[in-house]
Amino acid sequence: WGLLLLTAALGATAAARCPAPCVCDNLRAHVLCLNGSLMAIPDTIPELTKKLDLRGNSFTVIPAGAFLATPYLTHLDLQRCKVERLDEGAFRGLGRLVYLNLASNGIALLYQESLDGLSSLQQLILEGNRIEEIQPGAFGHLGSLTVLDLRANALVYLPDMVFQGLQVLRWLRLSHNALHVLGSEAFAALPALRRLSLDHNELQALPGEALARLDGAIRLDLGHNPITYVAEEALAMASLRHLFLDHASLQDVAPDAFARSPQLRMLDLRENQLQGLPPLAGAGGLARVSLDGNPLQCSCLLRPFHKWLARARVQAEGACAAPPALRGRPLDSLKLPEMRCGRLRPPPSPTTPPEQPRQCPRGCVCSPDFHHGSCENRDLREIPRDFPGDTRLLDLRRNPFGTVPPDAFPGLKELVSLHLQSCSIRVLHPGALRGLESLVYLYLTDNHLSTLVAAAFEGAPQLAYLDLDRNAFTRVPTGAFRLLPNLISLHLQHNAIGELAEGDLAGARGLRWLYLARNAIKHIAPAALAPTKMLEKLQLEGNHLSEVPTAALRGLPALSELKLSRNPIKHMGHSVFLPVASSLQHLYLDNMGLERISPHAFTGLGPKIRSLYLEGNKMSNIPDMSNFTGLEILNLQDVPFHCDCQLLLLRKWIDKLNLRVGATCGSPAEARGLKVKLSTTFLTCPGWGRGEAGETNPNKTKAASKPSKKKRSGKSPARGFSKSRA
């Protein structure tokens, strides 16, 4: 009885001290102060609080000693609190804290003592900030940390020993940054690391020296980086079992690339530009290689790889792209006699002296083994010449060329990939690429181009990937792509384009991926996209569109992904996606300030929709989506739903989904902040108790639904939003 009286007394004290905007659960020692207008950490939070949720407030700065009054905290959530700075000693006194979430704030710098005092912390989430620099020693006091999440920040460089002190860290998440360079000792202080996520960065080559320090790492994610080749013995990771290099720019892999990673079991090379692979000598433990989405040439040149697959008993996933007779054939169905080559070139005449290889231009580096040339960051004012004629990849980044003159690359008929990023280029002259008859990839990011003429691409008919992000375009250069019949991917993000007009994309009939994010587009003409009948992906996020460009979507029968996030679209009318309803699979409508959606806005959409993003909007209701039976991802976070009887259908539908959707009530007052699934405001609604078998008791209805959920568990569970990002 004494213990009960003491507990009651403590509970009464805690209730008396609960801050007015907050909700206190004394039994579980939880305090919620969600989506309010708090400008500072409340100083009247009960001392015995263990879990404190402060999401959606406006703190700007977390000052030193901000939580000294709550020393028993184990979980602290500060997501979306507009935090820009963590003062030194901000979390001092929180020696019991095991979970700290600072995601989706504006933190730009981690100071040496910012995280002091968190000796028991196990999970630190810093996703979605603006962190550009981490000062040495910032993590030095986090000796218990097992997960560090730094995704979606602005990191460009990792210095040596930056993670010193993280002796038990098991998963380091660095996806979706802008990492270019890793110090050779960047990962030297991570003896317990098992998983490293470096996907969606700007790594141009495999950072082998830095990765060699990770003796215990089992999984490495490097997908979605512009890595063009993997050199000999590039990866020396003794325990590595799973390597992901998908959606990169790989054109070649050396035979001994993985010879120093003897435990490698699974190699993911999907969606690259590989025409083939050599036998992967040294990778004796490899069990599976995924090559789906590569332009594999199943000629006699692929026979050595095919023989190695059979000899090493390696499962290969992928299909032939050529020759025509084998197009679409799975690799594992091929027979050696089918893999033939055409007529071989006759040997040179004895009277003709063999062609002498050219010398490498002064100040540049040429690799005869991989047919690569590089003059990166040499302060060159003119494009060098006299590269070897068999050069396939040429890296000229970070040189102040200013212009690319006509015939700038003579004798490079075999060149496949050309890198001209950050070269202060203002003009690409007619004939600049003349003679580059094998060119497939052209990178012109971070230059000063404001216009282009079609003649600039004369002589490069195979060009398929063109990257013009971060230039000075105010409109799409009309007709510039008419000499590029094989153009597949066009990047024009982070420019100042104001509209998409008819004729802008003339000639781009093979275009499949169009990236126009972060421009100033207010209008898209109805016929602007008409030439791109094969378009699969259209990204328009972060523009100035005030309505869905329905008319412009007509005639796009293959469009599977449409991204309209962060456009000021306030109202969505009837049938706005009907022109692409038969093909659309991924639809992004998040963070637009959307206030009203017509009940018939999604007319035509149905089972094909796999992901739908609606988070960060202002509407209080959404249309019926009961026929969206193929959904794998649905995000309804930060939408202020009005949880009354009009929302009952949505409430019941969410119950049936095997997804985490994040839907919360914004009103009425008694339901504010609660999950829609947990709100009791629906209990008095007509039809609430009517289940499939006609039960009227809510408890019976809930019980009756369990077998159906159990039945569904036999299938692979659909992936919820919480697992959808790397």
Give me a quick take on this structure.
The protein has 726 residues and is mainly beta. Helix content is 7%, strand content 17%.
Write structural notes for this entry.
This protein has a 14-stranded mixed beta sheet, with no helix packed on it. The chain has a 13-stranded mixed beta sheet with strand order 25-26-27-29-31-32-33-35-37-38-40-42-43, with no helix packed on it. A two-stranded parallel sheet has the order 4-6. The N terminus and C terminus are likely disordered. The protein is globular, with a radius of gyration of 29 Å. The longest helix is centred in the first third of the chain and has 16 residues. Strand 44, helix 4 and strand 45 form a beta-alpha-beta unit. The protein has 726 residues and is mainly β. The chain contains five helices and 45 strands.
Return the average pLDDT rounded to an integer: 85
Tally of alpha and pi helices: 5
Distance between the termini: 51 Å
Largest sheet report: 14 strands, mixed
Widest sheet, order of strands: 1-2-3-5-7-9-11-13-15-16-18-20-21-23
Helix content: under 10%
The coarse silhouette is globular
* Parts with pLDDT < 50 across at least 5 consecutive residues: 1-16, 343-357, 691-726
Strand-residue fraction?
15-25%
- Count of strand segments: 45
Radius of gyration, in Å, reads 29 Å
Class by SSE composition: mainly beta
Function: Potential negative modulator of chondrocyte differentiation. Inhibits collagen fibrillogenesis in vitro. May influence chondrocyte's differentiation by acting on its cellular collagenous microenvironment.
Family: Belongs to the small leucine-rich proteoglycan (SLRP) family. SLRP class IV subfamily.
Subcellular location: Secreted, Extracellular space, Extracellular matrix
Pfam families: LRR_8, LRRCT
